[in-house]
Design a protein that fits this description.
- The chain has eleven helices and 17 strands.
- By secondary structure, the chain is an alpha+beta fold.
- The protein has two domains: 198 residues, D-amino Acid Aminotransferase, Chain A, domain 1; 106 residues, no CATH class.
- The strands form five sheets. It has a five-stranded antiparallel sheet.
- α6 crosses α7 and α9 packs across α11.
Length: 370
């Protein structure tokens, strides 16, 4: 099993200590190929010992069920299906729980999209957030019963992306995936864990229903703070075919879709900012070049290069937001008073360090991250 045969040239090499099994240093390759192999691992060494390559399939790159014509109309291409289920698409950090083998033992771990393991960084302690809301023994039991990896979304106000949620921090089970790439929809996974919400069981004319659900999704969206929305980011459709396969398509409301498509001639600030936030799931110090590699999954190279200045400005904005968050939390924790106990006292204290126009943001930061 050669890495180029699976991932082409779109991969990076890694060697990292497993966050969930500290005695294991795992090495191999991680795919950046925007296909079913997106984020997949090919493990080739454990604790310095070469092992038979182990392919770990992850959360694949999802596509739309249409292509755009030159006149702006859409050419849909739905396969023949037995049934279709549409589930809400959550906007947070994707976490994949998986297992690997070594010396006769099975080890269970978890990863973000483009890192081999869930980690902690200067601006995002994803490992701590995951451990706060996820029960690995429960998850391992489900993995063993269904013989698959499990894909989750870690989402909420403490992990903001494009959509702002009222809950502080939660996880939702999205689906299962085997290491042969077979997708197991949430309806076929028996568990008591919170699952992503079923939006609709889809039948009839799939194109008409797709457009109707896009309209429903659009109705949920409301502009929140700059660069953010409340509502739903979209839905993921699970199409079950007569040959027992399950195909995933994404369906997004017009506003979110437009942010990502950018009319084919540019990239919106919203999508670049969201990509910058996502970058911190994979590295502590993202560069403009790294942001470009993430944007290359959706946009043509010439469009990305034409927006180099926007990418740099957006990355500076996100870094500034993270520095602001760090400063707020540092001052708040030094004061050693609970904002839930005495909000006026805490806010008076914080006003020494921040301007009046920033105080609402200071309060929100403390509530969400303090």
């Amino acid at each position: 099993m050669k890495v180029e045969e699976l991932f082409g040239r779109d991969y990076t090499e890694f060697s990292e200590v497993d966050s969930f099994n500290a005695g294991n240093t795992v090495g191999g390759f991680i795919s950046r190929r925007a296909t079913e192999y997106y984020g997949a691992l090919l493990i080739t060494s454990i604790n310095g010992e070469d092992v038979n390559p182990q392919l770990i399939m992850g959360t694949p790159k999802m596509h739309y069920p249409f292509s755009s014509r030159e006149d702006g109309s859409r050419k849909y291409a739905f396969p023949i299906v037995k049934s279709v289920e549409a589930y809400e698409k959550l906007d947070g950090t994707n976490i994949l729980c998986f297992s690997y083998q070594h010396n006769g033992g099975t080890y269970y771990s978890a990863k973000t999209r483009l890192r081999p393991f869930v980690g902690s960084g200067r601006f995002g302690n994803f490992l701590a957030m995951w451990q706060e809301v996820a029960s690995m023994p429960t998850i391992i039991d489900i993995m063993n019963r269904h013989q698959c990896n499990l894909s989750f979304e870690l989402y909420g106000a403490r992990n903001p992306h494009l959509i702002v949620y009222p809950n502080v921090l939660d996880i939702a089970l999205l689906f299962g995936v085997t290491n042969t790439g077979r997708i197991i929809p949430p309806s076929e996974i028996d568990c008591d864990l919170p699952k992503v919400r079923l939006w609709a069981e889809v039948d009839g004319d799939l194109i008409a229903r797709y457009e109707a659900i896009r309209g429903e999704l659009q109705q949920t969206l409301k502009q929140a703070d700059e660069g953010y929305y409340s509502g739903s980011e979209g839905t993921v459709w699970y199409l079950k075919t007569p040959d027992a396969k399950c195909i995933q398509f994404k369906c997004k409301p017009e506003t979110i879709e437009a942010i990502h498509f950018s009319a084919g001639c540019g990239i919106s600030r919203n999508v670049v900012v969201a990509t910058c936030w996502n970058a911190y799931e994979n590295t502590d110090d993202p560069t403009a070049e790294f942001i470009k590699t993430l944007l290359a999954e959706e946009f043509k190279p010439e469009i990305i290069e034409a927006n180099h200045y926007l990418i740099e400005k957006s990355l500076d904005f996100v870094k500034g937001e993270l520095v602001f968050r760090q400063k707020v939390l540092m001052e708040y924790h030094q004061f050693n008073e609970n904002i839930l106990t005495d909000k006026p006292l805490v806010m008076r204290y914080m006003s020494q360090f921040f301007g009046k126009k920033d105080m609402r943001k200071v309060y929100t930061t403390i509530i969400n991250f303090g």
